Amino acid sequence: MIQVEPCLSEEGLSTFYQGYYSNRKSRTKLSQQRCLQYTIDSQYISKFISSGSILDVGCSDGSFLRSLPTSFVKHGIDIELDSVTSSVDDTLTLHSGFFPDSKHFSDNSFDLITFRGVIEHLRNPSIFIDKAFQLLKPSGIIYFCATPNVVSPTAQIFKNRWNQWHPIEHPNLFSVKTLQTLLLPSRFNLVDSAYPYLDTPYASPENDLSILLSEVHNPTDIKSPPFWGTMLSAVFKSIA
């Protein structure tokens, strides 16, 4: 397991993330790319489950939930109070609060729980996984996506210039193997994993490869480009 020390307290992280989502939305190009990636991530998990009750942890304004099929009953939770208020619309229900302490949901009530671009931001991810295990139905699924892969080629070559190296934002960094360790083999089986790149809106294969090869031979001070293996997706099923 790889953890940044020292890292901010839970209170410090909560303060840091105030206004985080509104700032991200102001970056138009990245917002458009993210929306396209939502569709890719939605299509991937739909290979393994296509209906049921879903909870998205770190849901922001529910954009990822809206990209999922209408066959799901959709719920989300996020800690940022100025971004998410308890609300209901025709397609989903969103709540604000700290997920591990949440009283909004009943045990054994979800078929799918998603952590999209979230697990690396958590100071103590194990308590989030404990809560997810409690809320999942038997044989329920946890889905990680848009998760930085710390054993990727770009992480190994660029090190602290890796584009996912953010010591404040990402206090924990994972690979599929360490996600398995976090989830505990006694509770979850790995169903599948993937490393989306070529079909994503971030890929520029020739340019990205050129930068990577150049860095191997002539190191610079630039950040790593998008590349295969940088981000991971992983599907785990709870053991009934």
Describe this structure as you would to a colleague.
With 240 residues, the protein is an alpha/beta fold. 31% of the residues lie in helices and 25% in strands. It contains 8 helices and 10 strands. It has an 8-stranded mixed beta sheet with strand order 4-5-3-2-6-7-10-9. The chain has a two-stranded antiparallel ribbon with strand order 1-8. The longest helix has 18 residues, at 28-45. The protein is globular and about 55 Å long.
Order of the strands making up the biggest sheet: 4-5-3-2-6-7-10-9
Low-confidence stretches: none
Which structural class do the helices and strands define? alpha/beta
Indicate the proportion of strand residues. Answer: 15-25%
Shape: globular
Rg over CA atoms, rounded to whole Å, is: 18 Å
Taking the sheet with the most strands, its summary is: 8 strands, mixed
Helix content: 25-40%
Q: End-to-end distance, in Å? A: 26 Å
Q: Strand-and-helix sequence, N→C?
A: EHHHEHEEEEHEHEHEHE
Counting DSSP H or I runs of 4 or more residues, the number of helices is: 8
- Number of extended strands: 10
Set down the secondary structure blueprint.
Blueprint: E1 2-3, H1 10-16, H2 20-25, H3 28-45, E2 52-57, H4 63-67, E3 72-78, E4 87-88, E5 92-96, E6 110-116, H5 125-135, E7 136-148, H6 153-158, E8 172-173, H7 176-183, E9 188-194, H8 205-217, E10 231-238
Parallel strand pairs: 2-3, 2-6, 3-5, 6-7
Antiparallel strand pairs: 1-8, 4-5, 7-10, 9-10
